[in-house]
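Final paragraph of the annual report: two paired records, presented back to back.
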Amino acid sequence: MADSPQHLHNPCLLDTNEQTPAKVWELLRRNNAFRYVVERLEAKWQVEPIVQGDLAVLDSRVSGHSQIGRGIFITAGCFSADGIAAHERLRPSAVIGIDGQDLYYLLERALPLDEVFRRKLRWLVETGHFHHPIREFMTELEKHQ
């Protein structure tokens, strides 16, 4: 999947063709992504931004099970800025966010998923912010490959 005009115009959108969800699921399974005490995984393959209500539902399901459990929210699109702000004001999140741009970098650059999860989880614990875009630490990841 090369950079297309759509990706350049809206970098948080991932191609939503039928093969992409299967590729993402295989990437998660192959890399043993669920060893990070993941209670729930939710994926929304939609172009519309994910709003605070969607995040709150997953967060409450995860928080209701355990204090250390985490949820992963994957979207082919992006998280709305209002949704992120509202969600993070409530309390520390139990959800790790992965958006379309993150998925694009994971699939196209073959980034190590275990290291991406480790960094996203650490960011969540240290800052309380559930979404740490891969583009912010991609250069460091590529140096260590």
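The closing record of the year follows.
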Amino acid sequence: MNKWLYIAVEVALRELDAKILLALEAANKGYNVLLGSSRNIDKIYNTLPKGVLFFKDCAVYNKNKFKKMKKYGHYIAVLDEEAFIPLDLESFISHRVKGEVLKEIELYFCWGKNHKKIVKPIIDEINPTLKISITGHPRMDLLKKDFRKVQKNSNLILINTMFGSYNYKFGKNKYIENLKRLGVITNKEKEKYFLNLMSYEENLFNEYINLLKKLSKTFKNYHFIIRPHPTENIQTWEKIFYNYENIEVKQENTVNYWIEKSLFVIHTNCTTGIETFLMDKIPIAFVPIENKNYEIKLPNQLSLTAKNFENIAYYILLLEKKKLEEHLNRNEKKEILRDYLANIDFFAYEKIIDEIEKISISNQKYNLKHKLKLKLLNLTILFKKKYINTKFNVDKNQLLQRLQRFNKQFDLKQFEISNFYNEIFLIRKK
């Protein structure tokens, strides 16, 4: 087993389960897989055998990093986490699909035909030899019945919020500063766009507060879970609803966990509306304010629409009569989704590993030279008494627990899982 695949994870809560699925499929096909913190993989790539590095994006600031990785004989593959339905297409293209960084990539995976349509003209111009493969995303594989748990009767209604500009966890001023630092805001026009977004989100935020207060008071037998976006300040919500007995604010566990437990999901312009739809649950798009500049069309198209409290109250009554599902027109809406998401009828994780297997890399043995390099790096870090802080924050026991989710698809006893480096695990066949 001399084939190596390195799967980088930035935010474990969002990415890890889908990346575990990729890791198990690759290991099952004879790969040695390193799965773990992207920042720590960045630190040790020059101590590793030649292999395929799998990343979550090819943002312009990755150019130098990818270039160095290629010099060590590694191949770069990318599946952009944010490419499904970008809010600001112009910023997405300029920040995540343009520039010399594309010359450093060997394999670019697409969520669906729409994603390919966006990126292909740019890739053809900058790196015509870069292979584009439409595979879908393994995150969406996890929504299928094969990976879902059967849930008992529930009284939960999930409210997924997305106020990452107005309720930014580091403060409103920092939001604009960070966008400038990352090169997303490059002129006054762009700054105005995001300032207006903040204003739109503020008005929508207040509509949600009023809605939740009315729902809490009117439907006391239901339990309402507010799940803020990871970029939001969770304490804002906690302060507003701390004395409401049937409202809780939760940011732990994956969004899929809460969707599975819920009767239906309320959202606005959020991809969780799509995930809810794919999990055979009912998404409701709360649209009290219309603003075409900031509307993300697809999640709302796949959802029932509610413009006010009265609409949602009506849907709850239909739910109680077991008549809500028939209002969704699920089959018709599924056809709308096909252009955006390839893996409706197949598994993305299988197709991605099939494509990676086509990459031929010579001399992938893990030898004494690699081991000595890694030991020297470890000694340097121990001497400095410092490891890089990351958003991964998963230990081996937690990883093993997460792996149990996939015991129907894989014989987990055949895999060897060990600590390889700080927040990086080696997964391979025994």
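The mean pLDDT is 90. This concludes the annual technical report; the extension proposal builds directly on these records.
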